[in-house]
Amino acid sequence: MKVLVVGANGQIGKHLVTFIQEKEGMEARAMIRKEEQASFFKELGAETALVDLEDDIDPIAKAAEGVDAVVFTAGSGPHTGKDKTIMIDLDGAVKTIEAAKKAGVKRFVMISSFDTRRKAIQEATESFAPYVAAKHYADEWLKDTDLEYTIIHPGMLTNDDGTGQVKIGQDLDIEKVPREDIARVIVSTLENDATIGKEFQVVGGNQSVTDAVKST
Amino acid sequence: MKVLVVGANGQIGKHLVTFIQEKEGMEARAMIRKEEQASFFKELGAETALVDLEDDIDPIAKAAEGVDAVVFTAGSGPHTGKDKTIMIDLDGAVKTIEAAKKAGVKRFVMISSFDTRRKAIQEATESFAPYVAAKHYADEWLKDTDLEYTIIHPGMLTNDDGTGQVKIGQDLDIEKVPREDIARVIVSTLENDATIGKEFQVVGGNQSVTDAVKST
């Protein structure tokens, strides 16, 4: 299985490409914005595709050609300018979805925010709400397609070492979760077709990633 | 015909409520954010509804109860903070659309931006692109509903006195158009059911508003 990782140079993305390259029968194509980001991925033996997510759909579709799945884990993050929130977290995500369709890739894994429902937008702080709204509309766009999607809603992301153990569910209380463990959840999701058409929250916990993903 | 004007206190909105109140058989309900904005509309004999567009769908739906049409002409404008672009131009618009559905109002007129197609997002300047993207997604959301919509794409808005004459079409060159004339186009659109399911651009021109709207 070849996987296009959009946002490969991000903190989840780097863990993800690393894990994919370690997996038998899986390989990654890292979509990156700058040539100088390539060496990290080349050292892992991964392919790279140089595309700016603010470009049009076609170059993204070209990067997606011949892969079996697309993972969207790009993000401006909640603390960048709000112009990037709409251009990357919403428009970049939608263009990636459309690119997957164009390239004939059916499987799509979206890394979303912990809660992107209407209520979460309304209850978010004024500075966080635009990010939640952007992720909401990206998720809605994906759910309205015929793609074989899974939407992963991580809790408060940390750079702590992963434990390989998480808690997965719906309507969880928000808790911390290492980015490294989210990357493991993504790999496990790609390996488990029962996750297709589903969305779930992930926080730190004490169930193995494999078992937790199976339980969705 | 009773019309809920969302964004009534805006520059187009004030002209629009004025024209609606002057029309035989038409009356406006002005949706406004602050109580002190009410006097302008009360003097015109229009109803008012006090709702913040950043609130949830329910209060907007309540404001839409019993009207025959909703006009969305609220806008953060292209030069406010990009947080407001997503919260008002996109999320405010979508909540208004959902509110119309909830209140059982079928007719919906959206005041969009001159060109909200994918190409326009890609070709916009970095500072303008988030606004175009927000309007793009609001328009897409509306077109995906069963509402009887019309999407109006005005050219460069000015505060010049209206002339009552415009040019309407698809793929026009962008030119100036007074906000007052856009308000006239909205009234004419509400009076003309042949505009349902259509979208068109409006710039300054030399055809009467009534004839131009008929030609869509």
From TrEMBL, chains A, B:
<protein>
    <submittedName>
        <fullName>NAD(P)H-binding</fullName>
    </submittedName>
</protein>
<dbReference type="Pfam" id="PF13460">
    <property type="entry name" value="NAD_binding_10"/>
</dbReference>
<dbReference type="InterPro" id="IPR036291">
    <property type="entry name" value="NAD(P)-bd_dom_sf"/>
</dbReference>
<dbReference type="InterPro" id="IPR016040">
    <property type="entry name" value="NAD(P)-bd_dom"/>
</dbReference>
<feature type="domain" description="NAD(P)-binding">
    <location>
        <begin position="7"/>
        <end position="192"/>
    </location>
</feature>
